[in-house]
């Protein structure tokens, strides 16, 4: 599957309430994963050069750093010996890729990334399986989403398959940095920034794509610990027609102050709400799932729809796919109930509170690359706490089964074409 960006209007009817209109819609299409994205920058004459792995130049570091003890790893603080850089300019397109020692690079003070936040990024992970093979989890999804994000803020697009081949080269070169302990991985951060040397709002005439990597330990080193959320009504993460559905740097800095606000009140993360109905959108920097118990004794797994405000997370898609395959008996997941309904629909805080009061809420959890699954035990909302059940070991019945399947596929324990061998 691939992401396609459609500029259109959609009317979404919510339980008989007034309709909401979303001018931007992200839709999953069946286009082949090898499909190339067209550049956002029309030219005359010869087409601009795309990313070409055959032009790769490699300059190994003369001074490799000592490998850190896995027990000392802190997420995103330690980086491998090398990085990948690929320049772009509006006249010739993508230049020669370079793998070189990790380190600072020079930016002109007038670079557009510094003034207008022309920056996007992705997050993906590489693992070593029991046989020593290196695996990256669903990287084609990250390449497609990165192109969609680039197009949204007028950065140049690229051949995602070509960039993935270069990322594999970088991973191979620094493969000794991949921790082998359970729950550990190598976090891969591709980024693209506008580097035009002039102040002015518009598509940049220069850009830089770069990839850095960081060995990381488990998100919950001492076991799963459910987190408390603050249902924020003071701040908004995204709005219809905005940029919430894209992985842009500009979406994250505004969340720091609300995070501090939530922490001062004793909560770990914000639960982002939207509109007077307080529709649930995301949790922290993750997608959110709610599990309800139905009247017939079955379960409903619910996540908000991709309405233009929700980021189309890779883990989100993975959770939905696994649950739907189980529900249709296409691929049974051990531990998931047989009577399972999977829904992408709006859900409000009123519905969550009423389900909690009536004993019909089973669990609520976040899903994202860093944590994979993050269970929730309470939500602060309008001055009260809504309590969410958590199962044995801190995870509910649905999230634990899905997490076990996902980790198995990521690490190669469970065979899957989602796990790409490097």
TrEMBL record:
One of its GO terms (cellular component) is mitochondrion. Its EC number is 2.6.1.42. It is an enzyme of class 2 (transferase). It holds the Pfam family Aminotran_4. SUPFAM superfamilies: D-aminoacid aminotransferase-like PLP-dependent enzymes (SSF56752). GO terms for molecular function: branched-chain-amino-acid transaminase activity. Gene3D superfamilies: 3.30.470.10, D-amino Acid Aminotransferase, subunit A, domain 2. The modification N6-(pyridoxal phosphate)lysine is found at residue 247. Its cofactor is pyridoxal 5'-phosphate. It catalyses: L-leucine + 2-oxoglutarate = 4-methyl-2-oxopentanoate + L-glutamate; L-valine + 2-oxoglutarate = 3-methyl-2-oxobutanoate + L-glutamate; L-isoleucine + 2-oxoglutarate = (S)-3-methyl-2-oxopentanoate + L-glutamate. The keyword Nucleus does not apply. One of its GO terms (biological process) is L-leucine biosynthetic process. Keywords: Amino-acid biosynthesis, Aminotransferase, Branched-chain amino acid biosynthesis, Pyridoxal phosphate, Transferase. The keyword Disulfide bond does not apply. It comes from the Eukaryota. NCBIfam families: ilvE_II (TIGR01123), PRK13357.1 (NF009897). Belongs to the class-IV pyridoxal-phosphate-dependent aminotransferase family. This is Branched-chain-amino-acid aminotransferase. It comes from Pholiota conissans. The lineage of its organism: Eukaryota, Fungi, Dikarya, Basidiomycota, Agaricomycotina.
């Amino acid at each position: 599957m691939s992401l396609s960006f459609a500029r259109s209007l959609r009317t979404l009817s919510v339980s008989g309430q007034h309709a909401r209109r979303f001018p931007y819609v992200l839709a999953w299409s069946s286009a082949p994963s090898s499909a190339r994205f067209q550049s956002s920058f029309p030219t005359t004459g010869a087409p601009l050069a795309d990313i070409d792995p055959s032009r790769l130049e490699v300059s190994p570091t003369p001074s490799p750093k000592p490998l850190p003890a896995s027990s000392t790893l802190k997420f995103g603080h330690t980086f491998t010996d090398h990085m990948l850089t690929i320049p772009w300019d509006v006249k010739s397109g993508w230049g020669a890729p370079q793998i070189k020692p990790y380190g600072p690079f020079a930016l002109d003070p007038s670079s557009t990334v510094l003034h207008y936040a022309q920056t996007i990024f992705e997050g993906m992970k590489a693992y070593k399986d029991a046989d020593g093979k290196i695996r990256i989890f669903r990287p084609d999804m990250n390449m497609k989403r990165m192109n969609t994000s680039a197009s949204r803020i007028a950065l140049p697009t690229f051949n995602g398959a070509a960039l993935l081949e270069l990322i594999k080269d970088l991973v191979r070169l620094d493969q000794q940095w991949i921790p082998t302990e359970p729950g550990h991985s190598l976090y891969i951060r591709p980024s693209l920034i506008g580097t035009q040397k002039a102040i002015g709002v518009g598509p940049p005439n220069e850009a830089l794509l770069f990839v850095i990597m960081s060995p990381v330990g488990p998100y919950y080193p001492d076991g799963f610990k459910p987190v408390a959320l603050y249902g924020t009504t003071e701040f908004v993460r995204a709005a219809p027609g905005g940029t919430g559905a894209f992985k842009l740097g500009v979406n994250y800095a505004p969340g720091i102050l609300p995070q501090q606000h939530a922490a001062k009140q004793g909560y770990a993360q914000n639960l982002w709400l939207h509109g007077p109905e307080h529709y649930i959108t995301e949790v922290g920097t993750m997608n959110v799932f709610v599990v309800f118990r139905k009247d017939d004794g079955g379960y409903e797994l619910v996540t908000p729809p991709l309405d233009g405000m929700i980021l189309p997370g890779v883990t989100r898609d993975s959770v939905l796919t696994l649950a739907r395959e189980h529900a249709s008996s296409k691929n049974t997941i051990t531990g998931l109930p047989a009577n399972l309904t999977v829904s992408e629909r709006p859900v409000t805080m009123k519905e969550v509170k009423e389900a909690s009061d009536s004993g019909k809420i089973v669990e609520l959890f976040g899903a994202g690359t860093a944590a994979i699954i993050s269970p929730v035990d309470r939500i602060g909302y309008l001055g009260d706490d809504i309590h969410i059940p958590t199962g044995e070991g801190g995870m509910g019945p649905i999230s634990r089964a899905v997490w076990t399947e996902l980790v198995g596929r990521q690490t190669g324990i469970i065979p899957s074409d989602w796990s790409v061998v490097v």
